[in-house]
Amino acid sequence: MINPYDGTAVGRTWLAGNAEFERAADAAVAAAGVMRTLPAYERAAILSRASSALMARKAEIARTLSGEAGKPIKDALIETERAAMTFQVAGEEARRLGGEYVPMDLAPHGVGHIAIVKRFPVGPVAAISPFNFPLNLTAHKIAPAIAAGNPIVLKPATKTPLSAITLAEIVVGAGLPAEAISVLPMDRTTGDRLVTDERFKLLTFTGSSAVGWGMKARAGRKKVILELGGNAGVIVDESADVAFAAARVAAGGFAFAGQSCISVQRVYIHERVFGDFSARLVQLVEALKVGDPLDLATDIGPMIDEGEALRIDEWVREAVDAGARILTGGKRLGGPLYAPTVLTDVPSEARVCSQEVFAPLVVIAPFASFEAALAEVNRSTYGLQAGVFTADLEHALQAFEALDVGGVLVNEVPTWRIDQMPYGGVKDSGLGREGPKYTIEEMTEPRLLVINRRQP
Description:
Blueprint: H1 18-37, H2 40-56, H3 58-69, H4 73-96, E1 99-102, E2 113-121, E3 125-128, H5 136-148, E4 152-155, H6 162-173, E5 181-183, H7 188-191, H8 193-196, E6 202-206, H9 209-218, E7 223-227, E8 233-236, H10 242-254, E9 266-270, H11 274-286, H12 306-321, E10 325-328, E11 332-334, E12 337-338, E13 341-344, H13 351-354, E14 361-367, H14 370-378, E15 382-383, E16 385-389, H15 393-402, E17 407-410, E18 426-427, E19 430-431, H16 436-442, E20 444-452
């Protein structure tokens, strides 16, 4: 594995082939019965011990994250803490996984019958995780699978497998039966077998929209969870605290070089505060430090590879040719580094507006009416999360009703996430929800039991 910042070797692993895939799939099938009968208190204890181990090894794991992904070390430390929390919450949810009593006497022929619903593990889980949060987004697949009582086979991103492998070692060390988890770095052809192999009963994928929906079309009868792309919109209302909104956009648009599906991408600002907001935002963005991810002062590290820096530079040039203005940035800084960029006067059809930019870039535009801003946010094939900065309660509630997204955050950027909340999108942004409680629901099936007490 190569550090994208300086090209140094971070670690070495091997690609699994068909033989390794077969062993992992067979192990998962064999482990399904073991996991199904593993008591809730044991699953919870495994998850809790894994959480503690993550925290005990936080510094080491963060350095691995920083090395393989080029993530600023201060962000890598936070991601490690978040992964520990994901495991802790999943352990708590394992203790709460229950069912319900269903009343049968709503009709005369139901009198004398009782019914309960219990949730059962769905079976072997196939998981594919992305490069941008290689520890915590992997945790969001492994921890709920364990909590639900399912074995799991996971393909980590090819560029960032080391933290996922470490995570598997941790959960086995915490007491999970070894056959219940396999982490297999694989090429795309081998990894694609996770999608089509009928031994797996659920597929969970985080990545690009085109790839995710293509997987769903080929997944057969599997349950599918898709956490896909976005081009997150933010509205800054006339009543908003402009200084606060600008500071949050500067944080939400540029963390991890914008390589997040909920990174702030499009910002619509009321025309009366547009000048003030844009001046503040540019000042904040120009103060961000770009450089070595292992330097605690670094705010923005490299993109995952030089090709991505070349791509975004091409998109910026396209927007400028169409009439956009660069307020700051808009240039490569060498190799995979790209200057944090703010654009305005961007045509809505330009790729920096219409597609997922996945780069340290924010587009800003003025609006005259709140309804027009809502329409602009909705003018997207994506619908993951949106942010609204306002002091007007009616506008906050209007946004909640009108925005076609998975989550609306008021006086916060859409980049904000806490790991127990239901997280996911609509339209091209995905299917299903993550967050341990909600993923566990996806990874289990309800089963009904009816007992007739009125026997002859």
